[in-house]
Design a protein that fits this description.
single chain; 179 residues; alpha/beta; two-stranded antiparallel ribbon; 4 helices; globular; Adenine_PRTase; transferase; EC 2.4.2.7; PRTase-like
Length: 179
């Protein structure tokens, strides 16, 4: 069961499908046209941020790369910090690393080892929930910092790929649009 709204938001028309990207058989949900339209981009960010208003948050954790865009905008909207979770080799200094599997490859992500103080309250943000590998890896990774993850949010969930089943049932997972 998802918590996506029943009505399709106006900004949803800005999303486009790209077949066979990044490899044959994958139908990629491209959010770039949404990002290029100021009013609809703002509307999507406001909807995502509204899920967290009134909760004590210290930071938004955004997953590379489109989770950076959404997460940073949400952090600004909510008046909290932003912490990037990056692909390997992109962060200077001491990092923590987590490996994971996607529907079409394996990968790993990293975060600065001193990105957040122990006990900080964070929400994890990404653009699309597919198989759940990236979101699950980000959850494991940031927990190793000693923070409290209060939940996660994604703009789009691809329901048929089962990613929600890989998320911890007792943590909120907010989705704005389900395909």
């Amino acid at each position: 069961m998802t918590d996506a709204t029943v009505a399709v938001p106006a900004w949803a028309s800005r999303l486009r499908d790209i077949a066979d990207f990044p490899k044959p058989g994958i139908l990629f949900k491209d959010i770039m046209p949404l990002l290029a339209h100021g009013e609809d981009f703002r509307s999507a960010i406001t909807a995502m941020a509204d899920r967290w208003r009134g909760q004590q948050l210290d930071a938004i954790v955004g997953i590379e790369s489109r989770g950076f865009i959404l997460g940073a905008a949400m952090a600004l909207e909510l008046g909290v910090g932003f912490v990037p979770v990056r692909k390997p080799g992109k962060l200077p200094g001491k990092v923590l690393r987590e490996e994971y599997t996607l529907e079409y490859r394996s990968d790993c992500i990293e975060v600065h080892a001193d990105a957040l103080p122990a006990g900080a309250r964070v929400a994890i943000i990404d653009d699309v929930l597919a198989t759940g590998g990236t979101l699950g890896a980000a959850l494991s990774l940031v927990r190793r910092l000693g923070v409290e993850v209060v939940g996660a949010g994604v703009l789009v969930e691809l329901d048929g790929l089962g990613g929600r089943a890989r998320w911890e049932a007792d943590l909120p997972l907010h989705t704005e649009l389900v395909f």
